[in-house]
């Protein structure tokens, strides 16, 4: 555990977050129309630093592609390619410092999501364990985590080792897409052995110096794919979880256990766990995949009430289809804010730190792009200025996330903000605000303007008679320093398609 203010029992803290008033912050279940947002150019806000804190925000997470996948997620190539492996020594250091720390001197991202069986998919001789697929793979991950100041991994299976599956393969679906593949056996003795093997998979990682901060049994357990995946029915998922999760808890008592990594408690898998008190004794969080969706959904949908007191969060966010847009940049920032403000989420994960330039999905999936050594296409339109083993930022995604990595330090505590509402009682969807204090007590707040055409003026009662320094982000803007303003009342005009962070100085 890092930092003097860390709680001793994080599971208790996570479960206690909901008692701080999450349900009270939920907006009315009203769909907001674009007509409501049109013409609104100003609003008054009051940050309630005088009230009890609403939640502790642990920090943000990212996923790492430490092995290859075919373009368009079309299968598992034999090519050895990934990060940090493909990067030159200097580019690795720059990646750790400029992206994973977001330029901070101490630490930035807190958690790294590792797709077991996909991006860490070497297989032992007996087919029952996951190991490095190329020499030094886990050592490089440990180097990355150490040098970037990341706390630890969210280790989550895309597929268990192939020796446990009906097709003896990491792939979860037949070539004709008519057959999905799962575990060979759900007999108690076989599930007990699977649990021992999954503990051993974590032992393999921790022996190299990695910490397991979170663990998940299966990514999207109803999806069979022509890359690593494993399909369960809800009952099979429940039975497997009940067999394996106690073993994870016994060996790694401080690891947070997630379920179900797609629909959380709302789907069939979560409902099966909710109906089983024994299983629920091992569920610490519900994880959702609201991939590339409108951030307004986190205002109008209640993800908290049915969660049985467990925190909820989004552990995969990216844009699956279409070109990146300026609107998507601001929408991503609002997704982070709205999960935390309206759902009391303790964290939020972007899908990939870096993706290779040759994968068709990379623009919508990545915070940055790298050229693998085997990619020799330097033609126009294919990143002709990016050298092999080098990487560059993907601005519309990076600029949406990086301000939170830089100005929302680990274990910051969020405070309620009183804000204007539409006449029907719904929240403003295009203009969002979130406020917090860092562990040193420094007040910070974030503002957005998702409108593409109109500036928006926030009049903010900060309850702080001190100077605040602004930092602006947008589709083509990263950490632009703005003139300081002195509180307690701050009048701040945010341009269209912008995100701003206002930090008390000093």
Provide a compact summary of the structure.
The protein has helices at 10-16, 22-25, 34-37, 89-100, 137-148, 188-206, 234-251, 268-274, 277-280, 297-300, 326-343, 362-365, 395-407, and strands spanning 42-47, 55-57, 61-63, 111-116, 122-123, 130-131, 152-157, 212-216, 256-262, 285-288, 312-314, 349-350, 352-356, 366-370, 391-393, 412-415, 417-418, 433-437, 443-449, 456-461, 467-474, 477-486, 489-494, 498-505.
Proportion of residues in helical segments: 10-25%
Quote the average pLDDT. 93
| Separation, N- and C-terminal Cα atoms | 27 Å
Spatially, the strands of the biggest sheet line up as: 11-10-9-8-7-4-3-12
How many beta-strand runs?
A: 24
Q: Name the beta content range.
A: 15-25%
Question: What are the segments in which pLDDT stays under 50 over at least 5 consecutive residues?
Answer: 1-33
| Largest beta-sheet characterization | 8 strands, parallel
Rg to the nearest angstrom?
A: 22 Å
Shape call: globular
- Helical stretch count? 13
Structural class: alpha/beta
SSE arrangement:
Blueprint: H1 10-16, H2 22-25, H3 34-37, E1 42-47, E2 55-57, E3 61-63, H4 89-100, E4 111-116, E5 122-123, E6 130-131, H5 137-148, E7 152-157, H6 188-206, E8 212-216, H7 234-251, E9 256-262, H8 268-274, H9 277-280, E10 285-288, H10 297-300, E11 312-314, H11 326-343, E12 349-350, E13 352-356, H12 362-365, E14 366-370, E15 391-393, H13 395-407, E16 412-415, E17 417-418, E18 433-437, E19 443-449, E20 456-461, E21 467-474, E22 477-486, E23 489-494, E24 498-505
Parallel strand pairs: 1-20, 3-4, 3-12, 4-7, 7-8, 8-9, 9-10, 10-11, 13-14
Antiparallel strand pairs: 1-17, 2-16, 5-6, 14-15, 16-18, 18-19, 19-24, 20-23, 21-22, 21-24
């Amino acid at each position: 555990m890092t930092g003097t203010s860390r709680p001793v029992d994080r599971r208790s803290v996570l479960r206690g977050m909901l008692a701080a008033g999450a349900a009270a912050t939920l907006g009315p279940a009203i769909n907001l129309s674009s007509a409501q947002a049109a013409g609104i150019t100003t609003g008054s806000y009051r940050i309630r630093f005088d009230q009890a804190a609403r939640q502790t925000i642990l920090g943000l997470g990212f996923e790492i592609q430490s092995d290859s996948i075919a373009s368009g997620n079309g299968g598992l190539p034999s090519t050895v390619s990934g990060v940090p492996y493909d990067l030159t020594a200097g580019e690795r250091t720059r990646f750790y410092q400029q992206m994973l720390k977001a330029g901070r001197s101490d630490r930035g991202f807190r958690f790294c999501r590792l797709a077991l069986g996909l991006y860490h998919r070497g297989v032992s001789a007996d087919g029952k364990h996951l190991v490095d697929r190329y020499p030094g793979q886990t050592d490089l991950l440990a180097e990355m985590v150490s040098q970037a100041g990341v706390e630890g991994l969210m280790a989550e299976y895309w597929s268990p080792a192939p020796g446990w599956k009906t097709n003896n393969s990491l792939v979860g679906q037949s070539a004709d897409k008519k057959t999905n593949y799962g575990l060979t056996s759900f007999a108690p003795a076989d599930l007990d052995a699977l649990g021992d093997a999954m503990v051993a998979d974590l032992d393999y990682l921790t022996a190299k110096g990695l910490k397991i901060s979170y663990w998940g049994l299966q990514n999207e357990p109803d999806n069979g794919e022509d890359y690593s995946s494993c399909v369960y029915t809800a009952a099979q998922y429940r039975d497997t979880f009940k067999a394996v999760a106690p073993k994870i808890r016994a060996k790694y008592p401080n690891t947070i256990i997630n379920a179900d990594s797609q629909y959380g408690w709302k789907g069939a898998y979560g409902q099966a766990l909710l109906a089983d008190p024994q299983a629920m004794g091992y569920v610490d969080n519900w994880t959702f995949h609201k991939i590339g969706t409108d951030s307004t959904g986190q205002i109008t949908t209640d993800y908290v009430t049915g969660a049985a007191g467990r925190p909820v969060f989004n552990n995969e966010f990216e844009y699956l289809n279409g070109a990146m847009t300026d609107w998507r940049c601001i929408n991503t920032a609002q997704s982070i804010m709205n999960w935390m403000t309206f759902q009391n989420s303790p964290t939020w994960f972007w899908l990939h730190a870096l993706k290779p330039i040759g994968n068709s999905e990379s623009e919508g999936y990545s915070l940055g792009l790298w050229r693998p050594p085997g990619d020799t296409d330097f033609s126009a339109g294919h990143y002709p200025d990016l050298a092999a083993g080098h990487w560059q930022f993907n601005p519309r995604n990076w600029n949406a996330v990086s301000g939170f990595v830089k100005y929302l330090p680990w274990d910051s505590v969020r405070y309620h903000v009183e804000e204007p509402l539409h006449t029907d009682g719904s929240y403003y969807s295009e203009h969002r605000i979130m406020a917090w204090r860092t562990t040193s007590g420094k007040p910070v707040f974030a503002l957005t303007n998702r409108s593409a055409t109109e500036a928006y003026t926030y009049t903010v009662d900060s309850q702080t008679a001190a100077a605040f320094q602004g930092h602006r982000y947008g589709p083509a803007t990263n950490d632009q320093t703005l003139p300081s303003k002195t509180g307690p009342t701050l009048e701040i005009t945010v341009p269209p398609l912008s995100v701003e962070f206002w930090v008390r100085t000093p």
